[in-house]
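Appendix B, example 12.
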Amino acid sequence: MNRSLLQVVFFLALSSLVLGSYHYYLWARLVRDAHLPPPYRGAATALLVAGAASLPAAFALGAAPLPRELVRPFALAAYSWLGLSFLLLVVTLGADLARGLLALVRAGPGPDEPERRLALARLLAGASAALGLAGGAAGLASALGAVRVDRVRVGLRRLPGALAGTRVVQISDVHIGPTLGRDFLERVVAQVNALEPDVVAITGDLVDGPVARLREHVAPLGALRAKYGVYFVTGNHEYYSGADEWLDELGRLGVRALRNERVSVGEGDASFDLAGVDDWTSKRLLPGHGHDLPRALAGRDPSRELVLLAHQPRCAAEAAALGVGLQLSGHTHGGQIFPWNFLVRLQQPFVAGLHRLEDTWVYVNRGTGYWGPPMRVGVPAEITCLELHPEDGARA
């Protein structure tokens, strides 16, 4: 058995174990302990089993050479369940934690009478289900509604005065794929163009799927308009979808990929450097690719302002050491579904918004689309309009 096949088998085994374990936990707390009457008990059990089985099936269908239109309804249902079951898990764990703390405060194990124990179990199960469903509904509305525009002013110490007010519009983590398609991207493009950008920056994870399946859904990018151009850097998901083919396709649409290189934005002395790097993980995902910021900056004039496009925030320390004035990143989705943002912070130095690291500003876009569950709970999607000015502070 070769290494790739072993990795696939390991992933499937691990994911099945995780899915099975937390679905069993949900069943135990929301169905078994609540002693639902037979009709409801059977229906709830069947729903949990079907939900657990739908997730690996959705991944398999997404990898199969099937038309997107055929896969989309099933993917929407399965990924919606993924988001809803995560929310149910969070609130059910919270209820268990609260019950445990209450028992400690009372210095006892809790109600002794069977009737009281059953009443408490049903109360907690009902409250958990209601909160999970409410969070899921709100998350669906947020993810599938209009994308909001966040306006951020950034002061850069080396920016020429003639470029004060330069607008860089950033979109990131759009994830055109099984559930988001052409109609969504057309709306995003219209919003971006309405901002009259000088530069459009697409900071990776644009697609989830091959060019042959998604070409028509990404075509609206050809309508983007910016005074100094539209630029793109790869995210990790491009490498799961045929990165080289997508780079060719984006070039055909007029989108310039920056692969460990830089360009000049503006005219003559009224200009700044715009650099872009391959995704942080790309070296191990595709031969000929790999994050290389020193290569992108080789030979540059350090007196010129420098804006960097890098999919993952974690290259910020390197960017600060090499004199980057502003780094634009994505990848985190801002956590997408609370409280996932706290876990993201374990891997990335910044999760969302504007941050300062030494002399470098770092802006992390929360994502323009979503990945997996069509939900955003407490973390709205965004299109970012960054207005650049000579150093006078920065504010959102």
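The mean pLDDT is 92. The radius of gyration is 24 Å.
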